[in-house]
Amino acid sequence: MPIPRQTATAAQGVGVWVAVLEPSNMITQLNPPLPLDTPKGPALAHFVIDYGPESHLMWVCFLDENGQCWTVPNPEVRMQSNWSLGRRFGKAEAVQPLPASSLMPRATHVPIAR
User: For residue 28, how far is the Cα from the chain centroid?
Assistant: First the structure.
């Protein structure tokens, strides 16, 4: 959030407000936590740390297996699969779409007798 700072201009002698940008928050709490696959196993990410444009995001994760806390760089994490949301990974979960001929026919308009 910009912090206003008052400065004076030499020509007019009036106060002018200038916004000075302070660094934004480096750490963000995720609510709800995100289920991730990490090199150490499945985990829930509770925080994400952003050190700036020249470094990876760092995910603060708690392992499902034993509750250990690890900070994992962005290229090493993946979202866990979620069949309901269409994130299906692996051959066991691969589902082919149904052919159009197997879909149920749509209901047609039937006039109501009066």
Answer: 11
Range of the domain at 53: 24-82
The residues near 47 (Cβ < 8 Å, ≥ 6 apart) are 27, 28, 29, 30, 59, 60
pLDDT band at residue 113 using 50, 70 and 90 as cut-offs: confident
In a domain, 56, yes or no: yes
End-to-end Cα, the chain, rounded Å: 66
Q: Which of 66, 63, 65, 27 is nearest to 45 (CA)?
A: 63
Residues of the chain with pLDDT > 90, as a percent, come to: 42
Task: Give a yes or no: residue 49 inside a domain.
Answer: yes
Q: Judge contact between 35 and 42, C-beta under 8 A.
A: yes
Domain presence at residue 38: yes
Count structural domains, the chain.
1
Q: State pTM to two decimals.
A: 0.57
